[in-house]
């Protein structure tokens, strides 16, 4: 466990905020998030992060967030835009 729980929580929440901003930009560029599915997933992950004090839960949250990150990166890639991978906490 490289970081303490507070630092992990803060870093995850920062990254989820970045994902929300990137999602908004993707939607402006034409990505369809029908029923705001991806957005709602991010909100749920934020809530889970705030409530969690468990490294296993953080690990699951990070895995789910990275899946969303990959979806967003794939959309950017389809437009010829490269992205920088987010720096997730090591657990």
Task: Write up this protein.
With 91 residues, this protein is mainly alpha-helical. It has one domain. 69% of the residues lie in helices and 0% in strands. It is built from 3 helices and no strands. The chain has helices spanning 5-28, 37-51, 55-78. α1 packs antiparallel against α2 (37-51) and α2 (37-51) packs antiparallel against α3. It is globular, with a radius of gyration of 13 Å.
**How many structural domains in the coordinates?**
1
- Would you tell me the structural class of the helices and strands? mainly alpha
How would you sum up the major sheet? none
Question: What is the tally of beta strands?
Answer: 0
What's the pLDDT, averaged over the residues?
A: 92
In terms of DSSP E residues, the strand content is under 5%
Query: Helical percent range?
Result: 55-70%
CA-based shape: globular
Quick description:
This protein has 3 helices and no strands. It has helices at residues 5-28, 37-51, 55-78.
Layout of helices and strands, plus pairs?
Layout: H1 5-28, H2 37-51, H3 55-78
Helix pairs in contact: 1-2, 1-3, 2-3
Describe the structure using short key phrases:
91 residues; mainly alpha
């Amino acid at each position: 466990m490289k970081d303490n729980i507070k630092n992990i929580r803060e870093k995850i929440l920062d990254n989820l905020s970045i994902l929300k901003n990137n999602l908004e930009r993707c939607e402006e560029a034409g990505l369809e998030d029908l029923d705001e599915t991806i957005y709602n997933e991010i909100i749920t992950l934020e809530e889970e992060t705030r409530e969690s004090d468990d490294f296993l839960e953080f690990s699951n949250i990070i895995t789910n967030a990275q899946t969303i990150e990959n979806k967003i990166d794939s959309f950017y890639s389809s437009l010829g835009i490269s992205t920088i991978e987010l720096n997730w906490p090591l657990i």
